[in-house]
Specification:
Largest sheet: 3 strands, antiparallel
Structural class: alpha+beta
Oligomer: single chain
Number of helices: 3
Helix content: 25-40%
Order of helices and strands: HEEHEEEHEEE
Length: 185
């Protein structure tokens, strides 16, 4: 195998996985009233495709503490082509809240890890958060909460919150660079 071809093996495998991968939003958050896909859902769908192409799919975590004291879990999702030894990676971030009612510290870190891993896998495998084409008409959804967005170019992080909490001082958990802005009251 030539060096040039060897260098492209992981990227070629990633392209094939991205083209074939379908991960429905099979989980339901009854409190928030939305459907979502979990890190485990993504791995369950992606690992067989990666294996067929001679690849291993890995997700590793690290911790980043910012000067302001906020702690982020940084997950790196990697598609490793076993034969060539090449790999392609992407990262995802999630901030640990200082306190989460009903959870001990390890559970708080675990939930941040799960979300950061889901974001890293979504970034690597080109999963998006748009509604499926065959989903119910998005125009009929009732909009009741405040819509928050990251103003970062290319980030695209948007979420709706009905609690009335002000997220304007929080850094985006996807890009880690910009504070959220109110997009709709």
């Amino acid at each position: 195998m030539t060096e040039e071809r060897k260098a492209n093996e992981a990227m070629s495998a990633l392209l094939a996985v991205q083209a074939a991968l379908k991960v429905p939003k099979g989980q339901r958050n009854s409190f928030g009233g939305f459907d979502y896909r979990s890190k485990e859902d993504i791995l369950e769908a992606a690992k067989p495709l990666a294996h067929e192409l001679g690849c291993a799919l890995l997700v590793d975590d690290g911790i980043r503490e910012l000067a302001n004291g906020w702690v982020y879990v940084v997950s790196t999702a990697t598609l490793h082509h076993v034969e060539s030894g090449t790999e392609v990676s992407a990262t995802g971030l999630a901030r640990e809240p200082a306190v989460k009612k009903g959870m001990d510290e390890s559970q708080i870190t675990g939930t941040a890890s799960s979300y950061a891993g889901k974001r890293a896998l979504g970034n690597l495998l080109a999963l998006d958060d748009t509604a499926d084409a065959d989903a119910a008409d998005a125009g009929t959804a009732q909009q009741t909460g405040t819509l928050w967005a990251c103003p970062g170019e290319g980030c695209g992080r948007i979420f709706e919150d009905e609690s009335g909490y002000d997220y304007s001082g929080y850094v985006c958990d996807r890009c880690g660079k910009h504070n959220y802005v109110r997009a709709r009251q």
